[in-house]
Write a structure and sequence with these properties.
By secondary structure, the protein is α/β, with parallel strands linked by helices. The chain has helices spanning 55-69, 90-102, 115-123, 254-274, and strands at residues 11-13, 28-32, 35-39, 77-84, 105-112, 127-130, 149-155, 163-166, 168-173, 181-184, 188-194, 197-200, 210-215, 219-222, 225-227, 240-245, 248-253. Strands 1-2-3-4-5-6-8-10-12-14-15 form an 11-stranded mixed beta sheet, covered by helices on one side. The longest helix has 21 residues, at 254-274. The chain is elongated.
Length: 275
């Protein structure tokens, strides 16, 4: 969705038990574009004197918000957790999910700027988007020359229904099952079987690549180019690389691709030396 051509999304904030309180110290629910967001207070800046909210306080506030606003949502409403820069482990994420379940709410996706929280959420089976702030919930065109985030490393089996989004390269040590999704602005490397959807260069970079030990995807995307696997599986699976060539997306055996890339690099070096 192009945020420049779309009208502003109306935002409705649900009632709070203490309206006069500093919102940066509060757990809040927001209804935005038909989605229910759960916003956790961010960590305070180092130069401020504000005391960070403790985990116990956060749990108490969440319970109060759920009790106060329960009448505003339908049963089985999906919740998107905006964790910002808070560090959460699997136990804490499960505690949040259980509090939401008591009100018939389902935690589905976690937005975070902390790598540890992203890994914990993905391991717990939630879809993840590692972003810096709430503004990134609305997609916008990537600025030219923007540096990618550091790679996101995951060691797990990506289950069906789980989506991982990252503004850099994703490295998965494990399998990506059918029904799962990997979306990266950089490359995607799967040290296992890729059997779900993989979208590299999601911000438009057509030089990105998708690599897997076993390439069995339901769909491959690089930038705006989409490809599906052949109906007949190969007799033998070898590590492969998907990339965009002159005639569209291509899939090559990893060793052949590496040899070709080295030859191209050597030719370019020779041309530079002779010029």
């Amino acid at each position: 969705m192009n945020s420049e051509s779309s009208p502003p999304t109306p935002v409705t904030e649900l009632p709070q038990t203490t309206p006069e309180a500093d919102p940066n110290l509060q757990v809040r629910f927001k209804s935005e574009g038909g989605r229910l967001l759960l916003l956790l207070p961010p960590e305070p800046e180092p130069e401020t004197s504000r005391t960070p909210i403790s985990w116990i306080e956060l749990c108490q506030q969440l319970k109060q918000r759920v009790d106060a606003a329960e009448r505003f949502w339908q049963p089985n409403t999906v919740v998107y957790l905006v964790a910002r820069d808070r560090l959460l482990d699997m136990r804490q994420l499960q505690s949040i999910a259980e509090t939401l379940e008591d009100a018939q709410l389902m935690l589905k996706r976690v937005f975070t700027s902390r790598r540890q929280t992203a890994v914990a959420a993905a391991t717990a089976g939630y879809s993840v988007e590692q972003q810096a702030n709430l503004a990134h919930l609305v997609q916008s065109p990537t600025e030219a020359g923007k540096a990618l985030d550091d790679p996101l490393y995951l060691q797990m089996t990506l289950r069906s229904g789980v989506e991982i989004r990252h503004a850099g390269t994703i490295v998965l040590l494990g399998d990506a099952n059918p029904g799962s999704s990997l979306v990266a602005e950089g490359d995607i490397l799967v040290w296992g079987r890729l059997r779900g959807l993989a979208h590299a260069g999601s911000a438009g970079n057509r030089t990105c690549r998708i690599m897997a030990l076993q390439m069995q995807p339901t769909q491959l995307r690089i930038a705006d180019v989409v490809a599906r696997p052949p109906e007949k599986p190969p007799a033998e699976y070898l590590p492969e690389v998907a990339y965009i060539g002159e005639d569209g997306m291509r899939i090559a055996i990893a060793t052949d691709f590496a040899r070709s890339a080295l030859n191209r690099a050597g030719d370019l070096s020779d041309r530079r030396e002779s010029s």
